[in-house]
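How it folds
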Amino acid sequence: MSGRDWRHLRERLHDLADLGDALASDMPVGDARFLYAIIEPMAEDAARLARDLATVLVNEAAENGVELPPLDLGGDAS
């Protein structure tokens, strides 16, 4: 893992929210295109970090004999 923790994820998500707010304004197309180019890798990084942190949590729970409840997000399992 990268050594980053939930604080880094929170910071990344706040940055993405700020960029989303900027897109919500009446922005010229060229500027919006630039922001989308920035947002995509930032979102991928946030998703990767969230997966890493979730994996660490699951592994630590297993190592300590903590049974986690099933993860049901309400989606179709098929």
User: Anything to note?
Assistant: The chain has a mean pLDDT of 89.
